[in-house]
Amino acid sequence: QVDVAAMVQLFGYVDVTDTGFIVAVLSIAFNPLFWNVVARWEHKTRALSQVFGSPHAACYCLGAVILVLNCVRSHCFTEAMKSQPKLEGWDCHWTYYSGLAISAVGTLFVISSFLALGFTGTFLGDYFGILMEEKVTSFPFSVLDNPMYWGSTAIYLGWSLMHASPAGLLLTAVVAISYTIAVLYEGPFTEEIYRRKQKGVKSK
């Protein structure tokens, strides 16, 4: 069971009306919304592929924009943590190194996921018509679904613990929620794309 009193005490350290905190929340929520809207628009209209001359060029451009937005999100996250108090009981070596270990595991999942999928596989290439031959089942996909998302969440969790930051922990929860919602939308849509591909192959 969750200790509600402890949670209330923990988040009593967080000023949710702070401008930096609000900006961080908005940047976290905006990113998956942005790439899902743009990718679905591209899948429906092929407008980006036409503008950039090819699906690959368009996908690389969107990927670059997503990377920049992720850097902005990380900057806003860090600044929001710095502007709010630390939890003194957590400001110790044990918490710091625990956070470092969690971030390392998250980084492993993110990097290995990218290497398994490639650039276009990572950055929504299937929405551009750049489909993989088969579903990736190697590590880290053999360990958990959506390792890129949960690895990224783990990085933020570790970063928050390293800074003994209640604000960081609350923002990490926002990251987890935003990714959970993204998965609910992306999963069925991507499965439908590949179902149509298989149906097209069988009909030939």
TrEMBL record:
<keyword id="KW-1208">Phospholipid metabolism</keyword>
<dbReference type="GO" id="GO:0032259">
    <property type="term" value="P:methylation"/>
</dbReference>
<dbReference type="Pfam" id="PF04191">
    <property type="entry name" value="PEMT"/>
</dbReference>
<keyword id="KW-0594">Phospholipid biosynthesis</keyword>
<keyword id="KW-0443">Lipid metabolism</keyword>
<keyword id="KW-0808">Transferase</keyword>
<keyword id="KW-0256">Endoplasmic reticulum</keyword>
<dbReference type="GO" id="GO:0006656">
    <property type="term" value="P:phosphatidylcholine biosynthetic process"/>
</dbReference>
<dbReference type="GO" id="GO:0000773">
    <property type="term" value="F:phosphatidyl-N-methylethanolamine N-methyltransferase activity"/>
</dbReference>
<feature type="transmembrane region" description="Helical">
    <location>
        <begin position="20"/>
        <end position="39"/>
    </location>
</feature>
<dbReference type="GO" id="GO:0005789">
    <property type="term" value="C:endoplasmic reticulum membrane"/>
</dbReference>
<keyword id="KW-0812">Transmembrane</keyword>
<keyword id="KW-0472">Membrane</keyword>
<keyword id="KW-0949">S-adenosyl-L-methionine</keyword>
<comment type="pathway">
    <text>Phospholipid metabolism; phosphatidylcholine biosynthesis.</text>
</comment>
<feature type="transmembrane region" description="Helical">
    <location>
        <begin position="94"/>
        <end position="119"/>
    </location>
</feature>
<keyword id="KW-0489">Methyltransferase</keyword>
<keyword id="KW-0444">Lipid biosynthesis</keyword>
<dbReference type="InterPro" id="IPR024960">
    <property type="entry name" value="PEMT/MFAP"/>
</dbReference>
<comment type="pathway">
    <text>Lipid metabolism.</text>
</comment>
<keyword id="KW-1133">Transmembrane helix</keyword>
<keyword id="KW-0496">Mitochondrion</keyword>
<feature type="transmembrane region" description="Helical">
    <location>
        <begin position="167"/>
        <end position="187"/>
    </location>
</feature>
<dbReference type="InterPro" id="IPR007318">
    <property type="entry name" value="Phopholipid_MeTrfase"/>
</dbReference>
<dbReference type="GO" id="GO:0004608">
    <property type="term" value="F:phosphatidylethanolamine N-methyltransferase activity"/>
</dbReference>
<protein>
    <recommendedName>
        <fullName>Phosphatidylethanolamine N-methyltransferase</fullName>
        <ecNumber>2.1.1.17</ecNumber>
        <ecNumber>2.1.1.71</ecNumber>
    </recommendedName>
</protein>
